[in-house]
Amino acid sequence: MKILLIEDDTQTSDYVANGMRERGHVVDHAANGRDGLFRATGGGFDIMIIDRMLPAVDGLTIVKTMRGAGIKTPVLLLTTLGGINDRVDGLEAGADDYLTKPFAFAELLARINALSRRPPIVDDSTVLRAGDLEMNRLKRTVTRGGKRIELQPQEFKLLEYLMHNAGQVVTRTMLLENVWDFHFDPRTSVVETHISRLRAKIDRDFDEEMIHTVRGSGYTLGIAG
Amino acid sequence: MLFAIVYWITLGALDRQRSDSVQREMQVLSDLYRERDADSVVRAIQLRVVDLRPPRRYYLLQDASGVRIAGNLPPMKPAEGEVELPVSSLFPDRVGKPDDPLDAYPVAALGIRLENGGFLLVGENQYRTIKAREAIIRAFSWGIMITVLLAAGGGMVLGVGFLRRIEEINRTTRSIMGGDLSQRVPARGGGTEMDQLALNLNAMLDRIQMLMESVKRVSDDIAHDLRTPLSRLRHQLESARSKMVPGEDAVIEQSIAELDSILATFSALLRIAQIETGARKAAFSCVDLAQIVTTVTEAYAPVAEDRGQRLEAMIVHASPIHGDRELLMQLVANLIENPIHHCPAGVTITAGLRQDEDATVLYVADTGPGIPAPERDKVLRRFYRLEASRTTPGNGLGLSIVKAIADLHGASVQLSDNQPGLQVAIRFPAVAERGAPRKPAT
Lengths: 225, 442
What we know:
heterodimer; A: alpha/beta; 5-stranded parallel sheet; B: 5-stranded mixed sheet; 12 strands; 51% helix; 16% strand
């Protein structure tokens, strides 16, 4: 994957660039907003990681300008915790996701992967499939190997998100934000509890597990292998 | 004291004046007797006794055998020198009850023996002295009464003003103890000692507030600056773990968990600091609390169930409020997490919403062990943890975040006895549409 990283803080940029290169990605780094905007509009990237606070031209302006120019490359915005309403502002400007600094590398990686494989338009297909698991979003039914599985509304929502990102790692934080709309870190094992209930319904009576725990990162849905 | 001095001096002077005038009169009459004869004295006395102006004078001239020759007094036993005649002795036929009120006073008299064996007595009654004494006593009585009234009235006025200022200071102190450090004692700008006190108190409060803010800033700065190296450390531990054989990395696993809890504490501190700036108010919108309570309760219900607890929502109609949805979700979540962590299995936790006349009330109640009354206010403090919950996970910031979010929304946090258990209620004052403060009904 070819990644454009626009970040003025050398500690963060080294941390991100080295980590991505270790995983075989190509990283192009711009240390200020003007340079970053120039490269961003040049195109040719699979994904962009842009810091919100930048010298010369700030991150939001880069995203707005890019989107104005019709460039649809997925953008992940990096924000600091002290920032007010960064998330809403960022998403309004046209960013696809955001991450608050400092972050665990696994979190960044999971989000980058999710973004790079996310279809550019909202996936509104009625039926989602993963292996022998099938979900009809209109009828709100789930079957595995043709066998009907009854889910609570929240379990349905959780499975929907997992199936939508099938084969990719989704982190705890991603689940909290997208399934429950929690933009804070609960002190209680909300995600773990719901995952284990969903597992009991999806996997218990079947030979092959669909929901896998990825150590240190999160969960992934799909047939292992 | 003054009264006594005035009394004695005035009465003494009047007494002296009277005895002087009696003496002069006696001198005149005795001179007349010596230089002329007894008849001229008789005529002089007869002329004088018709003068009825006060102070009334009394005369008596008797011959050697004790028979009255002239005068307006009954005959008496001759006695030389100064004598005092009581009213009863003046007019024995009228038993001391004279027709003329001017005669109703004792008489101070001077008597001398004449050369022919006769007796001459001149007296003047004490009308003036007695009247003067009455006047002085009356004057002083009024004086004392008016002084006492003025003193009491003035004292009361001063006292009420003084008490009012003390009450103002008390009120300010109470609201400062309630947590609002920005309160100040009203100063009137006069130069009185009370104004000085108010100014000094305010200066002291400014200083305390400054110190509090710098302490808070330091802790926020530490939280902020340590987050980056700590998360780098976490990343390094993660990299190290990925190169190890599963099962041999228990120490690293544990270290990462510890780091996560430190980072969570710092995040919570910074979150509070961010909320307290009030900047999020700009993004307030109309929020449906019922939907928030339902969502959060549904998210936590299985967690509670796994711990053998019951979590249910109890929503009575409530009007929407003006606020920040994300923060309110966190508020409800924190309120629900507390009983889940601190209560044993078997309790029922209720997350509820009700509409009071003047407020929308969001509450979370449990049937657990509760919090003793003296501890209730303390749990809102940062890092405060009850003795009983020191061993359970948590950083003592959950309710501090609740308090910060409630403050941002102008809501109050009340902890009360749920009988049994604890109830935490967040009261959002009622607002009119568009979030404008409610105007009094017209």
